[in-house]
Amino acid sequence: MTRRFASRAVWVGVVAGLAVWHMSLVGLVDSFQNRPILTDILSLGETLPLAGIVIAGAWAARPLLAGGLGRPTPAQALMAGAIAGAATGAMLAVLSFFILVLKPNGMLIHATPKLVNDLRFFQDAALGTLVQVGGGLLLGTAAASLNLVQRVARRALVWGVLLVLLFGIMNTFVTQILRNLPLKWLSTFLYRGDGLTIPGAVLLFAVTAALVAGWMLRGTQVRAGYAALPNASRQTTKIAAFILLAALILILPQILGVFLSDVITNVGLFVLLGLGLNIVVGFAGLLDLGYVAFYALGIYSIAVLTSPASPAFHPQLNFWLAVPIVMVIGGVTGIIIGAPVLRLRGDYLAIVTLGFGEIARIIFLSDWMTPYVGGAQGIQQIPAPTINLLGLALEFRKPQDIYYPILVACILAALAAWSFQRSRVGRAWTAMREDETVAEATGVNTTVYKLMAFSMGATFGAVAGAFYAAKIGVVFPQNLDILISINALALIILGGMGSITGVIVGAFMLVGLPGLLREFAEYQLLIFGAVLVAMMLFRPEGLIPNRSRRAELHEEEGESGPEGADGGGGPGEQPPGDRQPHPMEKPASGLALEAVAVSTRLGDRS
Amino acid sequence: MRMVRRLLGIHEHLSFVDLVLALLRVAVVIFAVVGIWATIQRGSFTLGDWGTFILAGLSLGSVYALLALGYTLVYGILFMINFAHGDVFMTGAFTAYFAANAMAKSGFLAQNELLSFIIVLLVSSGVAALVAVVLERVAYRPLRNAPRLVPLITAIGASLFLENTFRGLYGAGVKAYPTWTMFQGSIRLGDVEISYSRIVVVAGAVAMMLGLWWFVEHTRTGRAMRAVSENKDVAAMMGIDVDRVILTTFAIGGLLAGAAGILYTLLFNQVNYFMGFVPGIKAFTAAVLGGIGNIVGAMLGGLMLGILEAVGPYLLLDGFGIPSVNQLKDVVAFLVLVLVLIFRPSGILGRKENT
Hints:
- By secondary structure, chain A is an all-alpha fold.
- Chain A contains 24 helices and six strands.
- Chain A folds into three domains: 2-224, no CATH class; 260-492, no CATH class; 552-603, no CATH class.
- In chain A, the strands form three sheets. Chain A has a two-stranded antiparallel ribbon. In chain A, strands 3-4 form a two-stranded antiparallel ribbon. Chain A has a two-stranded antiparallel sheet with strand order 5-6.
- In chain A, strand 5 and strand 6 (392-395) form a beta hairpin.
- Residues 556-606 of chain A have low confidence and may be disordered.
- Chains A and B meet through helix 13, helix 14, helix 20 and helix 22 of A and helix 2, helix 7, helix 10, helix 12 and helix 14 of B.
């Protein structure tokens, strides 16, 4: 038994070590070295190997489920954590020697002596190795001991550490926000140089830990107390909270300053894109990898319609007049693109749309289209949206100003998506996504609803493009590639397919965070890739899941249900899984039951 | 009337989608006929030019064919589009660059060119097979019972991860392969000049395809692969280790992709971290064109796509007076992808799928 834990701990430690090798050799550790968390003590670069050790230690102390051995005793847990931590540390030591002895930096560009220095925490060979292995042992044990303490204490501890890390990383932005609010004294207390001060970190940790622990212990009471309040005062609380939130959102650009406002407007654009793609992928279950085509369409349409520099055709419309036209163009194009691909199965649809996206990009860039859309030069001088309010002309170009139109667009889009989701159309989409054949059998006109999803998604994408063009004022065709589609896809998958809140959270995490950290830019796609794989493996329903979607993705855990989200179980093919029944073997009664279930769901509101 | 209907693919009850598809068919045919006619009228290219285009297409197409085999093998067994296959191709070619470069620097390459080419080929195939196997084990195996879009999204993630890992490890720049003097030079056939490297590419690809065909048809493992692709459950009951067969399939796909990577560098002489993306999608197109799941189909599809891509822009678009048609060769390839998937997703040799 103990040996099983020990051997798993070694295994976990080696895997964590390999992950740290990967992060070191692709350059993450070294480029994050310049971002201190605690001044002169800890940088983000050093945090990565340490995080590897901590996760290995905590993981090694988890119950062994596969062997049916259950929970480890405290001694076993600590031992496993120590072994795993030490193993990860030993992997660091091996990497350090490997780099110094073999000098592979002609091949692996980041395998430099500087990296070894980082990995040895700036100690010499002997002491550095001792720190790696011994420190790994201690830290792994400490991480394992987390499994032994009470849940409240563990949560409080973990959240406290995470928040300290977050505030450390976000130093410049937090400082700036605190300066814009008259809270400069707080920022001088929290930060020194580029990182947190020790008292600042302790304060942050203590406050967060206390809040988390407090909420976990007293949270239910607070909620019960709120529920016990008379109706009128609950209403007042709600309204007050709403007004506070609205006011905060309204003055946000003033608090944030120019750079942060720019980041947040980018987040807003991706919220728009994500909401649109979410209709197609999340609601209707049609994976669209060429979504960038609609974004590009929006950008080019607004450029041609409003810019005086548009090469062939330049009506120079007002932005606000052009936006509805762009929406119509987007919607119609969605139908035109959607109609021929309606019969395709899920995965083929994804590849076809990818093809459409690439075709659109190449054609926009080609010499053939240069006389109409400017080719590689793009189109310049796209005017900023303006409003004439009681003789006061407002121009929305600077990040702090364009924030408001984008905010309004996001709110309208979210409301539209939300009401669609709850309408008859939304229920038809859900039915179609869960099982197309059954949906059709119960009278859902899948042609119409699929086209509707495509058209709606395209409209949202085109609007996002229009605002993007208005924000930057020029078209850069080179940037309109598949990576934008992937970015939008990654954010809805992280947030949770079919979940509107999920889109917003996903956009903040995948567009906002990388926008803040310059070093991230180079590794953004690496992290997107890792996020996509990790989410599909560990949490396919996303961080903030939509309820029915979660039920679908976890259906294998219950009874074996219909084949999958795309429902394409034709007679000529087998189900993708190896222990699933063949679609033809599905009992007829099961199909009928599902049909009844879907029809009830469809009928309950209309 | 019946004939017309059948030609347009319209059933008795005309639905909206049928109508759109019929119109699209007519439009594609008219476009192709007019384009070809106009190009012939214009006559900007000699017969020798066309020969050169076809040869270029044939050599590139044999690389696509090798890659398409990887898609087809995996799809035949798992019904999954291994989106990262193009990046497996990249990992092989990229890693082998360092072997080639080291041998060129030490002078070994100049001394014994054939042996060093074989070493490079082995390194490339080995690395690619290893990456493919790790990918299956880590990313795909846990998702075998998931809805079909889940493994596809995982594969997209894996593709990004591989590309950017290689970018991080080795840098974003384009690296030039050392030249193989033994493949320099060319022979003339009438108006057409054929370089040795093109011949090597086509011959190498054909040899590997024959080898794969023999392996699948005549070895025990090959028989197990066919059994698993027929029906996994029954195969498992017959005592076949399905997991091992799937792993072998990925390894073989990786081997072929690595070899394709080296043949590709013979044609283009350079590697970078993004080189796998477009060839990967095109090879998938080739696999679908030939009939996915069908090994002979993948070979045919690859060659056809290569030729279509090389000849298509000149033959179809030049007649319309479109400038720099060569820029649009990827458009032709992607249009083939779109049209094949829309009109005949079962491909040339595939069985008619009812979806």
